[in-house]
Design goal:
Distance between the termini: 75 Å
Largest sheet: none
Number of domains: 1
Number of helices: 1
Helix content: over 70%
Radius of gyration: 24 Å
Mean pLDDT: 87
Length: 55
């Protein structure tokens, strides 16, 4: 019976890995998009005063 429980646990883990991978990729994508937008905002604020100079 222990072998059957072990097989069931392995199967559950194997079936959950693609879902966990997709969730991880979605979270990583959202974090990357937020970081890039924050970085672009800081860059724009840094160079905002120099727009009139033509640099």
């Amino acid at each position: 019976m222990n072998s059957k429980e072990n097989y069931s646990t392995r199967r559950m883990i194997r079936d959950a890995l693609p879902l966990l991978g997709a969730i991880f990729l979605a979270i990583a994508s959202v974090v990357y998009i937020m970081f890039k937008s924050w970085s672009n905002k800081l860059y724009s604020e840094k160079w905002k005063d120099y727009e009139d100079c033509g640099i």
